[in-house]
Every structure is written in structure tokens, then in C-alpha cells.
Specification:
The complex is a heterodimer of chains A (155) and B (239).
Chain A: H1 3-7, H2 23-154
Chain B: E1 3-4, E2 9-10, E3 17-20, E4 23-26, H1 27-48, H2 58-77, H3 82-105, H4 125-147, H5 163-198, H6 204-234
Antiparallel strand pairs in B: 1-2, 3-4
Classes of the chains: A mainly alpha (155), B mainly alpha (239).
Chain lengths: 155, 239
């Protein structure tokens, strides 16, 4: 073995399994030092990383939840709006149908009354002409009658 | 006390001594612990070099570990103060876990030391006692810093009869923590070494797998108990 290992070797004590000596306090100091070193190199940085991540995850979760709630609220709002719009459009359609119906009926009634009026006028005209014609025929018949009577009487 | 076997030699209780002033330390424990700490830091540095919100590569592993350790600390210590103790509990777990698995998986035997041999740092009683005492210190520090002198109410709750038991417990806690870890890891290393020295092929494999399992469990037990003790210290009775 290297000479430096032997350097400090003196007349060796007896040794033994339960040989307590200055190794004990030095080892204690070494463990305490290691505690501080590991605290600086391991426990603090890793703890910070893990806790930062835990914080990041929980805030992300909270944000996501908030966004979800917002989306749900918007969805509900839009659904309500959609329903409203549907109702309105139905009302508009119904109104339009009623309007069309009314216009149709009005037009129909107008046309019918017009037609009635025309027919009535025509009938009146026909009646008048018929009366006129009858009157004409009556007069001619009278004339013919008197002519016939004259001829017969003259004969 | 080397254990002589026909095919190989097992070294138990032999250490590579370094001397600092007139203090002796176990060199092999520090060598292997530096390798363990180096591996740990390498993974951590690679994994945290470029942190992203969508984790990729080693960052995944680190985040999994962090999550696991956070759950462990939070379950035992409680929501209020677990953040203060997560690095300590986590470091205990990671250091013990990597030590145990390193001891089982790295072929230490290719490195020959003048005395003793490399292995899991947790197979040395000094390491485990050091960590167990740190846990005791953390227990008192957590209790006193969180509740001030009211912390000592812990010893007389729910009734003052508990006082002697609770005081004894303060001694048995580090004792059981350290010996459980030390005993399990050393026993596993010895079992594998003995089996490997008797039958070098295939036969030690199940024991090695069992060893990996025990190693992981021991790291979990140590970290969980440490967190539980700290949790006891900061626990507020519901009056």
C-alpha cells in the first residue's frame, strides 16, 4: 500500500471489535458536515424543484378549473341565447304565416266580392236588356197583332 | 483476533491505525467512508446540475429519494417541524444506505491495507455510535429549541412514574441504535466472508442478496427511529 497510509502509523493499539477511539468524534463531525453539504446540494435544490412543481401543478389545476367553469358558464349563456333566438324565430315564422293567411283571406274576400259585384252588374244588365227586348217584342207583337187585325178586317 | 480458516483469513477487529497527535483513528473506516461520501456527492452533483421542471435522468432518482425521505420524516416528526430535520434524517439514511450497499457491492478486497481491511463504514462501532449520539443530541436540541424547558415534561408524561424509565431510555436509545446497525452489518459481512471462504462459488449469493436486503432495512430502521425520537421530542400533547 502507499506510503502515506503508513505515514502516521505508530505502535498499533491492540484493536478489537469494540475499539472506541478518536474515530468516533471525527466520524460525528464528518456526518454533520455531510448533513450540511447534502442540505445545500441535495435537499434544498431538489425540495425546491419538487415543491415548485407541486405549486405549478396546483395553480395550473386551479386555473384549468376556473377556465372550465367559465366555459361552462358561457355554454349555458349561449344555450339560453340560442333557445331565445329559436323561440323568436318561431314567433316570427308564426307571425308571417298568420300574416300570409290574413292577406290571402283578404285578397280572396276582395276578389270574391269583386266577382260578385261584376256578376251582379252583368245580371242587372242582362235583366235590363231582357226587359228592353221583351218590351220591344211586346211592341212589335202589338204592331203585328194590329197589322194582322187590320189585314183580317180589311179582307 | 484473526479467524483462521483453511482457505482464507478473516480479519475481525483489526484496524489500520492513523495517529493524529496522540489520538488513534481507524484509517480504513475513513477511507471507505470517503469513497461512500464521494459516490453520494457525485450522484447528487450530477443529478442536480441541471434541474428541470420535467425531470430527466438522475434527477428522477433524486426526486424519488427526496420524496421518500420527506414522507419518512413527515410521518414520524409531524407536519410542523419536519422541514428542519429532513436533511439530518435524510443524510443518516443515505449515508448508512450507501455505506451498507457499498460494503456489500464494492470488491474491497482488491485493495490490500497493511492492517485491517476496507468494508462498510457502518461495520465499525465508532461510526454507528457517532451517529447514534448525534441522534441523541438532535433529540435534546429539537425538544429544547421547540418547547424550551417544557420539553422536560416529556419525562413525566403521562405520569411521573415514567421518570426512571424515560431516563434509562435516553441511554438505551443510542445503545440499541448503534449496536443494531453495527451488529447487523458486521454479521452480514462475516457471514458472507465465511461462506465465501468455504465455498467460493454460488453458495454465498443468497446470503449476499439477503445482506443487501438487511442493509437497506437497517438504513430504513435507523433513519425511521431517529425521526421517531425527534418526533417524540417535538410532539405536543393534546391537553
Amino acid at each position: 500500500m502507499h506510503s502515506w497510509l503508513l505515514l502516521a502509523e505508530a505502535a498499533a493499539p491492540k484493536g478489537g471489535l469494540f475499539d472506541l477511539d478518536a474515530t468516533l468524534p471525527l466520524m460525528a463531525v464528518q456526518v454533520v458536515l455531510l448533513t450540511f453539504i447534502l442540505n445545500a446540494l441535495f435537499f434544498r435544490p431538489v425540495g425546491k424543484a419538487v415543491e415548485d412543481r407541486e405549486g405549478f401543478i396546483s395553480t395550473s389545476r386551479a386555473q384549468a378549473k376556473e377556465k372550465l367553469a367559465q366555459a361552462e358558464r358561457l355554454e349555458a349563456e349561449l344555450k339560453a341565447q340560442l333557445l331565445d333566438a329559436r323561440k323568436q324565430s318561431l314567433a316570427v315564422i308564426q307571425e308571417a304565416e298568420e300574416e300570409v293567411d290574413r292577406l290571402f283571406r283578404e285578397a280572396l274576400a276582395l276578389a270574391q266580392s269583386e266577382a260578385n259585384a261584376v256578376r251582379e252588374k252583368a245580371r242587372v244588365q242582362v235583366d235590363a236588356q231582357k226587359a228592353e227586348a221583351f218590351a220591344g217584342i211586346d211592341a212589335q207583337a202589338e204592331k203585328l197583332g194590329s197589322l194582322i187585325v187590320d189585314r183580317l178586317l180589311a179582307a | 483476533m484473526p479467524l483462521h480458516l483453511p482457505l482464507a483469513e478473516l480479519e475481525v477487529g483489526k484496524h489500520l491505525y492513523w495517529q493524529i497527535g496522540n489520538l488513534n483513528i481507524h484509517g480504513q473506516v475513513f477511507l471507505s467512508s470517503w469513497i461512500v461520501i464521494g459516490a453520494l456527492l457525485a450522484v447528487v452533483v450530477v443529478g442536480t446540475r441541471k434541474m428541470e421542471r420535467d425531470p430527466r435522468g438522475v434527477q428522477n432518482l433524486l426526486e424519488f429519494l427526496w420524496d421518500y425521505l420527506r414522507d419518512l420524516a413527515r410521518d414520524q416528526i409531524g407536519e410542523k417541524v419536519y422541514r428542519d430535520w429532513l436533511p439530518f434524517i435524510g443524510t443518516l439514511f443515505l449515508f448508512i444506505f450507501v455505506s451498507n450497499w457499498g460494503g456489500a457491492l464494492i470488491p474491497w478486497r482488491i485493495v490490500h491495507l497493511p492492517s485491517g481491511e476496507l468494508g462498510a463504514p457502518t461495520a465499525d462501532i465508532n461510526t454507528t455510535v457517532a451517529m447514534a449520539l448525534l441522534v441523541s443530541l438532535a433529540f435534546f436540541y429539537a425538544g429544547l429549541s421547540n418547547k424550551g424547558l417544557r420539553f422536560f415534561e416529556y419525562y413525566v408524561e403521562p405520569t411521573p412514574i415514567m421518570l426512571p424509565f424515560k431516563i434509562i431510555e435516553e441511554f438505551t436509545k443510542p445503545l440499541s441504535l448503534s449496536f443494531r446497525l453495527f451488529g447487523n452489518i458486521l454479521a452480514d459481512e462475516l457471514a458472507v466472508a465465511v461462506l465465501a471462504s468455504l465455498v467460493p462459488i454460488l453458495v454465498p449469493l443468497p446470503v449476499m442478496l439477503l445482506g443487501l436486503f438487511t442493509s437497506a432495512i437497517q438504513a430504513l430502521i435507523f433513519a425511521t427511529l431517529a425521526a421517531f425520537y425527534i418526533g417524540e421530542a417535538v410532539h405536543e400533547e393534546a391537553h
